[in-house]
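Final report, closing paragraph on structural work. Over the funding period we assembled a curated collection of sequence-structure pairs, and we close with a single example.
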Amino acid sequence: MSGQTPLGAARRAWDMLWTQGKNNDKEKEKLKASKKTTRRRKRDKQPHSTQYQQTQISGANIDRDDVEFFGDEQQEKRDNTFRVGFHNIHNLPEDRRTSKSRQLVDYVVHKGYDCFLMAEIGLNWRKIGSNDRWFERIWGKFKTSRSIFAHNVTELSKTKLYQPGGVGMIASEEVTHRVIATGKDPTGLGRWCWIHFQGRNGIRVRTITVYRPCETPGAMTTYQQQNRYLRQHKSDFEPREALYEDLHRACSEWLSVGDQLIIGIDANEDVRTGQTIAFFNTLGMQEAILTRHTKSPPATYNRNMRRQPIDGLFVTPGLKAVAAGYEAFGVGCPSDHRVLWADFTYATAFGFNSPPLNRPEIRRLTNKNPRTVEKYVTEVRKALVQTGIAKRLFALEVKADQFGWNPKFQKEYDDIQILQLKIRKLIEYKLRKLRMGGVVWSPKLQTFRTEIELWAMILRKRKGIKVSNTRIRRFMRKSGIWDAFSYNKEGVTTKLADAHKKYRVAKKNAVVWRDEFMVSLAEARAERNNTSHEQELKMLRRRTDQKKQARNVKRMMKKLGQNATTKLFYTRNGDRIECTDKTSMEDACIYENTSRFSQAETTPPMTEPLVSELGYLADTAAAESILNGNYEIPADLDPYAALLIRELRMPASIREAPFVTSRVTTEDHTHGWKKQKESISSDPDGLTFSHYKAGATEDLITQFDATLRSLPYQHGFTPAAWLPMTDVEILKKAGVYDVEKMRTILLMNAEFNMNNKKLGRDMMHHAERHGALAREQYGSRRNHQCILAALNKRLTMDLLRQTRRAGALCANDAKSCYDRIVHNIATLCMRRLGMPKNPIHSMFATLQSASHKIRTAYGVSDKTYGPGRDPPLQGIGQGNGAGPAGWAVISTPLINMMRTAGFGFSLFTALTVSAVSFVCYAFVDDTDLVHTAKDVHTRGPEILTEMQRALDHWEGGLKATGGALVPEKSYWYLIDFIWTGEKWRYATKIDIPGDISINNVDDSGRDTLRRFEANIAKETLGVFLAMDGNNKEETHHLRKKAVAFADCIRTGFLTREDATYALHRTIMKTLEYPIVATTMDKAQWDYIMAPLLAATLPRMGYVQSFPRDIVYSPEDLCGLGIFHPWHNQHLSQLKVVLQETALPSITGDLIRASFEQLRLEIGLPDRSDQWNWSVVKSIATDCWLKDLLQYAAQHNLYVEDTLPVLTQYRTHDQFLMTAFINNGYRKKHLQILNECRKVLQVNTLSEITSADGAYLESWAWTGSGDHVSLNDYQWPRPAPLQQRHWQIWQQAVQSTFLHVSQTRERKLRQSLGEWMPEVCARWKWFYCPNENRIYHREDTGWRVYSKQPSRVQRLRSLRFVRSEIIENELPDGVDTMATVSSSPTVIKITGTCAVTPATGMLPVPVPIQESLEEALDATDTADRWAVESVSIKDNGRSLAAAILQGKARAVSDGSFKNAMGTSSSILFHSRANDPNRIISVNAVPGNANEQSAYRSELAGVSGSLAITAAVCRIHDIQEGSITLGLDGQQALLAAAGDWPLNPERPDFDLITDIRTKLKKLPISVKWKWVEGHQDDDKSTHLDEWAKANILVDNMAKAYWNHLNHGDHTPAPQRFGDEAWALHYQGNKLNRLDKAALYHAIMEPTAKEYWRHRGQLQAEDIANIDWELIGSAFQSLTHAKQRRVTKHAAGHFGCGTKMKLWRFQDHSECPRCPEPIEDPQHILNCPALSARACWNTALTTLEGWMTKHHTMPELTVAIIRSLKAWRSPPAHPINRSTTARYGLQRALLEQDTIGWYSFLMGKVSIRWQAVQQKYFEWLKRRNTGKAWVKALILKVWQISWSMWDHRNDVRLNTTSPSDRRAIEDFNRKIREEFSLGLDGIGHRDQHWFAKPLAHVLEYDKEHKAQWLASVDLARYRFTYRAEFAASSISQQRETMEAWLGQIRTHAHD
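Its predicted structure, as stored:
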């Protein structure tokens, strides 16, 4: 059947033609063999020089056509042409800078090839340096390109860059967008590669480049490498046949799917005959060039003397070349082959005609060059003055201010605007000539280019072509050639040729001249920026290097940017239609964008009645009424729109505050443009950002530009120049070209957009200041990180889990959020926040009147859309500077609407009973709604109903703003919990069925949303979060990211430095983003990092098995400095805890709530770091905080919180869970006991015992019955426990607390003591023995319970009944507390306790503070440090009066030295020498390493505030002010600022404390910077501020001296208003320094590794100078750091490791016969050359030590010790040395550490002290620390020298192992020759053509390949013989069987 298919027919034709081709080849081989001897004789007779002439075509029968072009002469490429070229380039040079490499690239660029195919590349790309990669060779030559290369990877040289064969291809410019796939020969032989292009209407083209090797005998040739591969894979084809066989299979498959093929091939035979033409005939392909030109072609290979084209361009029949040919030899790049080329029409290749691509205009003005900016602003200023437009504009501004804006003014404004635009564009055009060639530009090189251009213009003029004389004269002036006009045409031609020659010579100096230019540019920048030119030059070069590095990494990651699209699809009536031409693309975009910006036309604000009430711009009286809150809502208005309008009333805080200014000042303008990047795009009709940034550096231009912006901003009109806008369609997702799924970016006028940015910025700032934004909205807000919104979601789910509370979450997607914003509602939302009307009106009126054009890859459209439309287009536009802020202010009323309706998350915290509530998690338009039960008893079904209502409200409110939800992208979760009998689990959809729904986008019906189970994770703001807290999906997601990066870096060919950069700056940042919200354990992170490190470490220069302890160690511990994500996760989370708990944020509220719930759930009183987490983790619900606290406790970290702890209620009380744990209960039983405790809602034993503390209450024993709780905590949902659970509880209680002999009465073993006073104050039951009554506290008073008549007198048996008597007060004498048990009719007393003075019910009075000293002494202990000593004269009365008058002053200053700080402050009325002034001093708390002058300055502020607060308190001051002055600007800014603090900021603790105290003050505080040390200049007049500053400066210094004499040691402490604090190893930290903490955490691990590596003791590690090792290490380059780490770790290429890693089969030393070369052997190798190298290194070290004033005895000791280590003497030598300065002790210590460790940098910590004392004796200012650091660098140099010497020997001499290998090869070669040709097939006998002696001269690699080839040849011969024998045997058996059948039939 297969033979009847088209492919079967093609296969039969192929076999027939193949056989014919082989037969023809055989005839040729016979002819070739007959002539072989004759040719050899002739060649041998020719002189040597004539052999080289064979590289050129020569001979009597060769004419001119054989060397010139053939076919069509190649012309400049026309439009709609697909140009393809093919060239055997005959080995591409390794260095990209070579002429051949440059010529090749330049040729491809110059000729405009769309696809250029290359063969015989000759490179092993895996070994090519990053600077010589193909990408670097073409960098800057093409706007876009795609390349693919293939070479043989099955047999690579270990040492050579050359790899024979290989192919490559580049697709460039416009066809790049059509590339859909690339590929290569799947065998790895690199025989072909291809690029697949997608055309229109299903048309596809595949270009293939093929190299078919000729049959050559050399063992290392392409042919023989492929031959060996085929034999190894048991293929009987020879390589040339195999190529056609494999390629035919691939081509047939491509043809079967409809691809058109273009194959460029070097067939190494005449492409018109033989196997090649047979091959292509079977595919139905024809040679494009020879089909077009039928005359006999010349040779394509210059050694071919028979005019045989061995190269060809073959195409399928559908592709007809419109032009094609061979280039002349030498065209392209130097090669022995011609370039073949063919032009095809776009319509033929891709099914359509492509319009020309639009080239983006390159900006001539760049702010990077100060000289260009200076020239620009000078010319612009001159033009503004000379034309008078500046004067006209300023006059217009004055008129507008005086008379108000008149519409007549706009024409004048527009005229000025248009004129200045033209002027500035013209000035930019004249700034500089653009140079974008391959040669770097410099002014010197430009002079040669200028001369060429001058003579070229003169030549054109001499030819009669019109050329501007003005331009010629300008170039004459630039070049200094004043007689150019005097030359005739011939003279000009000569001059032009000379100019080109001079330029070619000059180009050689281009790089040097460029460096000189960079130096001069740096000097100019230094002058502008007030820096040094060295700094600027270093920065410029660093930027260049960083850009290149970033470019290399982007290339590796395949993220080199997104270019304008050349195609798109649109859908009409269900049909998906492709657009590829300019017109259809523009039409599709206009249709789509018109639809997109009009989507909201059917929403309530765009329909009646609101559209009439508000208009399109909300500029009506109704709009004012809405803002005032008195709008009468129409009865027929959409109900949700009505709810939203109620929320649009202006808040009182905004109404009472002054409105934001509507003027753009010059300061606004300058500050705004300074922060902008000039690369940001704007509408092409206006000026670029570069113009305004440059103009902002000059006063007149700044004033002019600011006024141009201010007039429309202030008066609300739309300038004509702002109306043009350009829509740019960009891909949301790579490869998705559907216009409906693209993102439309609006390019607006730069001035207009800057006004929008100002509007958004001022609006957000004003709203933040007055707290008018919804706290749930995290988008577009400073210090509101996206990841925190995701964390909020995580913490919410934790709290639901911790409290077992029901809830629901709905992630909804708002459709085209920015595009659907309705302008009238947006205006109201913005004005609601106090923004003036006119700036808003200007923005939205401009958007409504804008004229939109479309920009594609083909340019900007002539068609427009938008203006004059009614209703006008809506949306705020992506790219609008006010866009993100706009949605933030629109979402605020929406969220408030939900809050008003009672939806959202709400609970009371467990211990403080504080309310926590919010509506959603929002980041710009990404919103997740959350709704939870109001209490723990409400179940899931009720929440389901409420969630539907909540979603309806949200959807309705969103629609009221113009928005809509997309059902397909929305989903939800229903959260509830079910007790299984053993534990809690999440309820499933089976447990609680139900769905919720929303309206579909077109309101045609409702769609049910997808519902997910709690264990399913969905992506939220870039993080996969599951409601049950599992991390499986996020782990999988990050692992995929790591694998993808590993694949990129494995094939990315980066340098080691680039690989390091890529690791730290890309993938590690990717992994770092979600860590705040994840709880992955270390194993999961190791799983993620595994593929990453396996691929990256080798690229960084390390083996992939490099010890992970060092991989993750900090650099100053000689590690690689890779931050382990597990540690980074938790340290980042600690940062969030410190940061957010200091703020009134949602995140902070959730963390506090979760912490309180965790503390209540565990039931333990201690700090979290003191909990035994191995026990406690079983009773704590899994949550984010639990994971973090476990990590903290594990690493000696402790978070000190400000939350209340669980308390005991009486003496001798016990915490139940503590007692159970101490009694040995664990895991399951402990969980059950904890569940019982939570059901009872108790923490301590006193809560479950009688009032007398002697008996256990019955309800606490059985778990049933009502009781009065002593606590007001918010408990989680109780578990419905079974009787077996309570039996476990009873057993535990009995064994832990009860008396053994009185079990029935449940008597405690030890009665509890007295109650705490606060318990008595709120006790509810009291017993009056005199009246025999019980009193119960109720809301209205004390309810009386009377004794029921009974003969029983025992108190616990008495019964009492409820009466109707209620006493207002508890009667006198009622002082007995009681506990009771109740039944439906009576209550019984279970115990009583008399109220004693210790448990009295009255609060203890607070003593009245009469003096300031007493007030300061009574300050909280945590704050007393601020005023340690104080001088007070009048009890602060003078200062109090000054505060009330607003004239009080305070000045403070600090002193810091030697890790200790002090401060002083003075508070006075007006004079520093005020007799009633108050002066104080303090010592600054904190760890010694945290002390600084900055912290001392802050401590002075604390002192001033402490005294100010005390004065206000004792003098009852409630208003007034004080001005605080200090000379530390940074301290002043930090203390006075109101921005959220980063916990990583230095002195975070003290600044937080200061800011909180400032808020607590009843008065206002002003700030003043005072210049310090003004007394240094005796001529300076000192004001009172300066005098006070001098006084406190002296006081602080004096106090420092006082403390220093007393051996004061600063200690850390907690401050009173510090919020939460972090402790490490018992010390409180002043900030969270992630790097320092990570170092501290990893330090033990790293040191343990080095201890084990050096076989040291623990005390030896402590004696090593790690600080200076780290300092020396960090001073090295990355390359040298790599050396240090690898050598110290012993993981480098010494013999033992090379054998272990299987790079070689031995571990011998290349310098000596030692069979085991370990790391130490590198340094102590006994070879003579190694010894000489060692001696030289020691001599160098000794010389350095002497030169740097090293103690002589120390020098001798070190040198002797090193010599003795390397060459141990036969008998111990006397190494006694002086004990002076501790030298002997240091030497002994280093002996213990080891001298090999010394050479690895592990020096004793004592060397520093020895050399320091010697320097002091010499009275030199050098330090021992600097000397030891330099010494470490020097000893490292010794090991490097020895390693370099070893490698030099290995590479340049034959090592013993190499000699053995060569001898082994020689032996095997002799054996093969001894076997001779026996067992060798005829076609393989050429291996023995060379004599034995010749083969023995081959190098090692060549011999190995020869032997492999011969071995395969013998194997093939044997295989064929066996196969032939088997075939004959089978034939005989078949014949015999057939004959047997014949005989049988005959017999029958």
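The chain has 65 helices and 47 strands. Confidence is low (pLDDT under 50) at residues 1-14, 16-22, 26-62, 1402-1406. We thank the funder for supporting this effort.
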